[in-house]
Amino acid sequence: MTLDPETATFLIAGPVRIHPRVLRAMATPSLNHRGEYFHGIVAEIRELLPTLFGARGHQAILSGSGTAGLEAIYSGLLPTDARTVVVSNGNFGERTDAIARRYSSRVTTVSAPWGRPLPVAEVVAELEKGDVGALCVVHNETSVGLANDLAAIAPAVRSSGALFLVDGISAVAGIPMAIDAWGIDAVVAGSQKGLAAPAGLALVHLSERAVGRLHPGSYYLDLLAHLKSLEKNDTPWTPAVPLFLALREALVLLRDETLAGRLARTHRLAEASRAAVDALGLALFPDRGHASNTVTAIVNPDGLGDDLRKGLERDYHVLVQGGQGELKGKIFRIGHMGIADWPDLLVTFAALERILGKAHRLPTPGAALAAVVDRMP
Ligand code: PLP
User: Fold this and answer.
1) Which residues, in sequence order, are CB contacts of 303 under 8 Å at separation 6+?
2) What is the pTM of this model?
3) Could you read off the pLDDT of 120-152 as tens digits, one per residue?
């Protein structure tokens, strides 16, 4: 049977599976984006957005994928008269570095090998050298399944006076982020990850201080223009109307589940996945103590190359994701964020047991499934 996207088990590292209610929300006739009805939808989204971030503040909705949000904050907030420090330990850290270098002429990059935690002491030392206007970091490094410990660097960022700018694209609504307590000035979320809305919107949270420091950068992604229009429940340019409708419904689902509820479920799914990986005799790619709760990255076993991922898709219609960049063919990644749930993991790990069993590489039949079942509520 050929793979049918309507029935496949869909666990890539985002976009994620979308609830039918969210899909249906988009199936409406065209709306006048300058009319009262649409303004009402924007007003509801604005009321719901603090649920997504777990914080109140200035919050903008940009039509464009997560990278649009990153471009908006870096173009509008990177200093022109001070240094920018970028932390990089994976593919998206490298992307941050590339974007930052478009908008800041004095970038210092503090890096760690892909899959290793951010080097806290080096970051602190770099901040202590002074003259740092902004620090940019990826909260959850999707490419290697690792969550960076922002709490560990937060005090040093605060005392340096630098703006704390966070790529939260695969972290928001998946990994706890104490925006106010850690003094974060800007966070970007992507609609297609923990929120489980379709791809194509970037949600941006800004502190009071960040709004005060915004300067003209990108024209299309000018956050001041967006915030000003939003005060009237409007957008400066034509918004992606169907995506706004989906966003509202996805936010209602999140509000009903509660942010704490979604974070707890995502955490449990991650713990079950890690235990099942151990039971399969496979290895996690990142340092275990820093393994992400939204994406589990697993080393491809010797001699099997990318066979596990390909077998999952071909024989069981389970979609997971391969490695990016230098990790292509070396790892595969299971995304378990958004509305991913226990049946998704049961199918995935049952199929992995079967594939490894056929290859005579399964240490204890049934152990991975038991690891998942034992952790179900
Ligand atoms: N940053 C992180 C941490 C991501 O996971 C992704 C996408 O997976 C991006 C940035 C890029 O986001 P987008 O592809 O939505 O532009």
Assistant:
1) none
2) 0.98
3) 999 999 999 999 999 999 999 999 999 999 999
By the 8 A CB rule, do 59 and 87 touch? no
End-of-domain residue from the set 208, 228, 257: 257
Q: What is the span of the domain harbouring residue 50? A: 20-257
Is 4 a member of any domain? no
Residues contacting ligand 1 via CB (< 6 Å): 14, 65-67, 92, 138, 140, 142, 167, 169-170, 190
Backbone angles phi, psi at 234, to 5 degrees: -125, 175
Residue of the CA atom closest to atom 12 of ligand 1: 66
Contact by Cβ (8 Å): 22, 197: yes
| CATH number for 145 | 3.40.640.10
Q: How far apart are CA 149 and CA 211, in angstroms?
A: 25
Read off the amino acid at residue 29.
P
308 CA distance to ligand 1 middle (Å): 24
Task: Select from 65, 49, 61 the least CA-distant residue to 251.
Answer: 49
Q: 207-225: buried (b, 16+ CB within 10 Å) or exposed (e) per residue?
A: beebbebbeebbeebbbbb
Which tokens in the block code for residue 230?
């939003």
Tens digits of residue pLDDT in 297-315: 999 999 999 999 999 999 9
Q: How far apart are CA 171 and CA 160, in angstroms?
A: 25
One domain, residues 211 and 285: no
Strands of the sheet containing 163-167, edge to edge, are 58-63, 201-206, 186-190, 163-167, 132-138, 83-88, 107-111
